[in-house]
Amino acid sequence: MAYYFLFPESDTTLYSHPDRSSTNTGGDAILEITKEIGSSNNVLYPTRILLKFKNEEIKDVIENTIGHSNFQNTTTNLKLTSAEPKNIIQTLNLNVYAVSHSWDEGTGKYADTPKTTNGASWEYKNNTTSAQEWITSSFGNASTGSISSSLITQGGGVWHTGSGFETTQQFLVGDVLDTNFNVTEIVQKYSASLFNFNTYPTGITNHGFLIKKPEVIETNVSHSFGDLNYFSTNTNTIYPPKLIFKWDDSQHIYQNSSKKSGELNVSIHNLKNEYNQNDVSKIKIHVREKYPTRTFSTTSNYLDVGYFTTSSYYSIRDAHTEQEVIPFDDDFTKISANSEGMYFNLYMKGLQPERYYRILFKHINNDGTFIYDDDYYFKVVR
Q1: Confidence at residue 261, expressed as pLDDT on a 0 to 100 scale
Q2: pTM, entire model
Q3: Average pLDDT over the chain, rounded to whole?
Q4: Can you tell me the distance from the alpha carbon of 197 to that of 194, in angstroms, rounded to the nearest whole number?
Q5: Spatial distance between the Cα atoms of 31 and 233, rounded to a whole number of angstroms
Q6: DSSP class of 199
Q7: Which of 38, 377, 43, 13 is nearest to 219 (CA)?
Q8: What pLDDT, on the 0 to 100 scale, is given for residue 128?
Q9: Sign (positive/negative) of CA torsion 31, 34, 40, 43?
C-alpha cells in the first residue's frame, strides 16, 4: 500500500473587498476563507482560495510510480492544514471545484504598500498590466463563476460545475478543520486530458482547484460564519498543502506462518539512517514470537521467518511534532508479504527534507490490536 505527496506550484487568496479586489497575495504564507468588513459600510466581503499542482508531476506519478492500470483504483485527496481558525460556531461546508481558466500566482502579499498586482486577484486572473479579467458571464462548457450579489464586485474565478467536477467537505463544531477533499474524479479528468488529450467532459485541462464557501454563505453580507486560515506553499512550517495519491501496491502471497495470537518481536532489517527525498525504499520487516516455545532443535526459533496476519499496517510520524504524516489506513497502508518476509514500499517524495521520522506498526490478531513503536527512526535529506 502506498501514499505519495505532491506540493502546489502556486496558490493564492482572492479578496473581494473593494480595497483589495485587484490585490495579489501569491507570496503570503497563509490562505484565507474569511469575510472582511467594508471600510465605509457593514458589508462582509468573502474570499476564495486558488491552488495548482504541476502537470509534469501529476503525469510522472501516474505514469512512473502508480502505473496506468492502478490509477483507476487510486484515491486522491487535497489536504490543507488549518492555522488558527476563528469563530466557527456552526456546521460549515467548504466546496472545491476544478478551475476552468488559467491564472498566475504572483508574488504579492496582503500587507504590501503599495499593493502588488502581478498575479491573480478577485478581479483579474493574471495581472492588471495585461488586464485579463475573470469572465463573469457566457462561461461555456458547464462552467460558472463570479458571485450573485450586487454588493460585491463580480469576479473570483471561473470553474467547472456538475458531477465529477466538484466536491464538498463538511465540518462540525469542534472538528479539526484540516481539509481532506476527495478530488479523485477531478484528477482523473486531468489525467484523461494529459495522456489521452480528451476534452470536456471526460477530460479537462489542469488549471488547479478553487475552494470557497457555498454561495448562500458568501452572499450573506451580514454574517461571517467563521474564519478559516490554512498554511500555503510559502509557509515556513512543515504544513504546506498536499495532493495525496493513495493506492494498493501490496501483495500477500505467503502467509503460512502468520502469528495469530500474542505479542510479537518486530524489527526492521534494512532501515537506513538517511534517505534522499527522491528515494523509494522497500522496508523489510522481521517478525517472531516475543517468547518462542523452547524446543530441542539444531536451528534457532529466533531465525524463523514469521508474519503478521493480513490485518497489519504501517504509519509514519514526524519525530518532532508527532504529526501523523501517513496514518494507519485499512485501505492504503497494509503490509505486504512474500516468501522472504514482510515489507512495504515507502516513497520519500513529499516527506519534508531535513527532518526525522518514525515508523510504527499495527497488528490485529486473535488477542487484540497491538501497536509497535520501537524507535524506528530515519531522516530525509535534500
Answers
A1: 62
A2: 0.91
A3: 90
A4: 6
A5: 9
A6: -
A7: 43
A8: 66
A9: positive
